[in-house]
Amino acid sequence: MSAAMDTESTYSGYSHYSGHSKKAHRQGRDRHKSPRSKDGSRSEKSVTIQTPPAEPLLGNDSSRAEEGQDDNWGETTTAITGTSEHSISQEDIARISKDLEDSVGLDCKRYLGLTVAAVLGLLVFLTPIAFILLPQILWRDDLEPCGTVCEGLFISVAFKLLILLIGTWALFFRQPKADLPRVFVFRALLLVLIFLFVFSYWLFYGVRILDSKDTNYQGIVQYAVSLVDALLFIHYLAIVLLELRQLQPMFTVKVVRSTDGESRYYSLGHLSIQRAALVVLENYYRDFTVYNPALLTASKSRAAKHMAGLKVYNVDGPGNNASGQSRAMIAAAARRRDSSHNELYYEEADHERRVRKRRARLVVAVEEAFTHIKRLQAEEQQKAPGEMMDPREAAQAIFPSMARALQKYLRTTRQQQYHSMESILQHLSFCITNNMTPKAFLERYLNPGPTLQYDRDRWFSKQWTLVSEEAVTSGLQDGIVFVLKCLDFSLVVNVKKTPFIKLSEEFIDPKSHKFVLRLQSETSV
């Protein structure tokens, strides 16, 4: 196997050398003429290191390598593959440090709230049962007999507690979707109300029943039934405050991503600022296209290229260096502003041309690969069941025929960091399993999808920070602006109240639509 690898590397090195011998000789001659351009000549043709399948399909330095690549870079570039167990970047280090700082406080707050709610819920469900059982345990011989009436009340209490248990499980015992910076005001108020309500019932029960050892057992059971009825009404109040109140749209929010200006509009009801931010983030992962920082490097590189071509000379001496240099650079940039739009136009036109060409190559390659799959399926129908190929093996068989075209297209559109080799193979096997067309397979790569379409490891937004001038527990109001920040960008949310619409009715008399058609008896000759 090692001998085969040496042969393959020798062959790739030979093809690399034979394809560029003349060009290397010319570059060596230019290097002797201008020794300062050594870095620029090296960046034109470089060795591409492909990461293992768990990593993205291409490297993240595609924007820099794209400038020096021609359309035939795949045939003249040596590829060296390797394996790595761990990889980490500066952004990962920043995220890990921030997560470690916030994880302790968030976990304590989450478990404290769950513990308080669980203890209070257990107290609520055990209180009516304790009200009924304590007289039977402490002074059973002194109780007045209660026959059929008490048995009916027992059945009523049992079914009401079952209904309350199911309703509480459906309303409160849900998997949390997010960790909010502040407590939910209405939920906290409901917990306080339930605690005060149960405490008052226990206080009255201890003073009027336990101390005096009341012998009217039917009244004690009815007292427990009244507690369960009140708890059912509190549960109905919780449904109104937590679920029904926010359903009616009252506000329209505009969400703008700070980096590329992509915006969406959403309708919200009566929510607090932190819960409105949660709704905005849920819609962001579904509606906004995935954030791609590589698309923003073109304008930055263009601006750096313009500023790099400027030379500033200090005439007034070293004292006025900073202010004079900045003024001179601003003036020179203003003078070159008239010619920059032509460069931008031709640059965008050339990029669109390359995208269309590589997209056409990719579409043709994928269609040919799927045609080959159909031909293989027709041949395998004639084979024995044990010799048939599964979708994973079929995907691995046809992937090399489209890998180069897909790689070039992802590099050109700067999407390589979102698609790993393993994810592409999984998507291809999924399309083969469900008998999908080539167009359905290419939809994920031709059009950037929402953030939820990609793996969590490819997301650039996991930890968010809510910035607001108002308290995050206060409700939405007209004109409020708050910002959701993450490590790479931010979402600016502007709240507008839905205008009051006044409709008026106008009555139309049905007789006004009637008309009379008069025909002349005389005709023209």
Structural summary, described in words:
The protein is α+β, with helices and mostly antiparallel strands. Among the domains are: 105-244, no CATH class; 251-292 and 466-497; 343-447, no CATH class. It has helices at residues 2-19, 21-33, 38-44, 62-66, 90-138, 148-171, 185-210, 217-244, 273-287, 297-308, 321-335, 337-380, 391-412, 421-433, 438-446; strands at 48-50, 79-81, 251-257, 263-268, 465-468, 481-485, 490-497. The strands form two sheets. A five-stranded antiparallel β-sheet has the order 4-3-7-6-5, with helices on one face. A two-stranded parallel ribbon has the order 1-2. Helix 6 (148-171) runs parallel beside helix 8, helix 12 packs antiparallel against helix 13 (391-412) and helix 12 packs antiparallel against helix 15. The longest helix has 49 residues, at 90-138. It comes from Erpornis zantholeuca. This is VANG1 protein. Residues 1-86 are annotated as: Disordered. Residues 36-45 have a biased composition (Basic and acidic residues).
Number of strands: 7
Number of helices: 15
Based on secondary structure, the structural category is alpha+beta
Helix content: 55-70%
Inertia-based shape: extended
Please list the strands of the largest sheet in the order they lie side by side: 4-3-7-6-5
Contiguous runs where pLDDT drops below 50 for at least 5 residues: 1-90
Order of helices and strands: HHHEHEHHHHEEHHHHHHHEEE
| Gap between N and C termini | 107 Å
Using only C-alpha atoms, the radius of gyration works out to 36 Å
Percent range for β-strand residues:
5-15%
Sheet bearing the most strands, described? 5 strands, antiparallel
**Overall average pLDDT:** 75
